[in-house]
Amino acid sequence: MIFAYLRVSTGKQTLANQQNEISKFTNSRNLQVDRWVTEIVSGKKSGRERKLSSLVRRMKKGDTLIVTELSRLSRTLTDIMAIVGELLKKEVRLYSTKDRYSFDDTINSKVLCFAFGLVAEIERNLISMRTREALALRREQGIVLGRRKGSYTKLQQLIDDRVKIVRMMNCGKSIAAICREYDVARNAQFKCSSERIAQVPKDTLPDIAFIGRSNVGKSSLINMLTDRHGLAKVSGTPGKTRLINHFRIDDRWYLVDLPGYGYARTSKTTRGQFAKIILDYVLRCERLHFLFVLIDIRLEPQTIDLNFIEMLGEHGIPFGIVFTKADKLSKTQADRSVARFGETLREQWEELPPMFVSSSEKSFGREELLDFIEECIANS
Questions:
Q1: Rg (CA), the chain
Q2: Which of 110, 168, 247, 269 would be a feasible disulfide site paired with 173, CB 3.0-4.6 Å?
Q3: pLDDT for 26
Q4: Which H or E run contains 103?
């Protein structure tokens, strides 16, 4: 059977344009649509909550699904890849009429799926960053919006380099690493803030958490890792993070911003509440997959850091150490500081945890941290 899937986000939009485009496509190939599936729902909504999910489940080997573009399937790369992967597994052919591409079980089709899905996500993020007022102002100034005709888009670059991308994937290079090489952003969205672990997300995605003394540069590090300036709030006042903040990354894992321990310009009662939030999450939350402890590389080993690390070891919490603000020291000074901290840990530890050196100011250490996180997620 041949199915055509049409979707718009709101009732104010029309399905007619999509239907006409698919009709032209099928007529040009002497195809006949057996069933039209239409719905009005946001592309951000989980596929399991849409008609599309039941449609994909019912489809069988030899069936065909036609859409005008892959973004009609979903607005996130992960969901698009999952849907197309399920169709390919069932040996269902997928047509995206906009660019006359067919998706089957060939390696070229898989690369094209990756490229289209990634660009759809990038476009959505770019559009959401603009406000209507800003667009109106630019029009009034006579500025032409959009890409110039004939410009070389990142989508085209991904398609042109598909052979190279295949080689990288076959060599085990992660999607995150490929995105960084082509300078395309990943999807990072704020999910929720929680006062206690009973309020954290209930899904099964793993948590990768970050913690450290107040004013260690945690928010800046998070912004650097996600390449989203302002995602985590940066403040000159230590102790401003007072809740457990979850950021959903690529619909695959959560980056968790924990309150800083040690110093906060608040009452003793409030500091005690901070400690309870931290301990409850670190010691009791089953979502925690890995914890990064941030250390200011400029300082001598601090007792409060050493005590916290000792507690993690006693309870078997998987963790690593990230030294921050490396740009404030020379390389020699930074190496000495890391070595000094390691020597202090060896007084009680037989084996040292993973250690990383970073600078949010210079974006130093970002690739190494992201690659390590990818390994953690792959093993979750």
A1: 24
A2: 168
A3: 92
A4: strand 101-103
CA-angle at 316, arms to 305 and 360, nearest 5°: 45
Q: 319 with 312: CB under 8 angstroms?
A: yes
b/e 237-248 (16+ beta carbons within 10 angstroms → b): eebbbbbbbbbb
pLDDT at 44: 53
Query: Which band of pLDDT confidence, cut at 50, 70 and 90, is reported for residue 335?
Result: very high
CA angle 280, 284, 289 (to 5 degrees): 110
Higher pLDDT, 294 or 376: 294
Helix (H, G, I), strand (E, B) or coil at 253: strand
Token couple for 67: 């859409």
Mean pLDDT across the chain = 79
Question: Among candidates 98, 102, 40, which has minimal Cα distance to 65?
Answer: 102
* Cβ–Cβ < 8 Å for 286, 264: no
Model confidence pLDDT, tens digit, residues 122-153: 555 544 444 455 656 666 776 655 544 444 45
Task: Say if CB 358 and CB 365 are below 8 A apart.
Answer: yes
Which helix (H) or strand (E) segment is 250 a member of? none
| Cβ atoms within 10 Å of 295's Cβ, excluding its own | 25
Provide the CA 175 distance to its chain's centre, in angstroms. Answer: 11
| pLDDT (0 to 100) of residue 369 | 92
Tell me which H or E stretch contains 47: none
Residue identified by tokens 């007072």 is: 242
Using a CB cutoff of 8 Å and minimum separation of 24, what contacts does 273-280 make? 274/239, 274/242, 277/195, 277/196, 277/243, 277/244, 278/211, 280/196, 280/197
Average pLDDT, integer, range 177-192? 71
Cα dihedral 49/52/55/61 (nearest 10): -130
Cβ-count burial 47-62 (b if 16+ within 10 Å, e if not) = beebebeebbeebeee
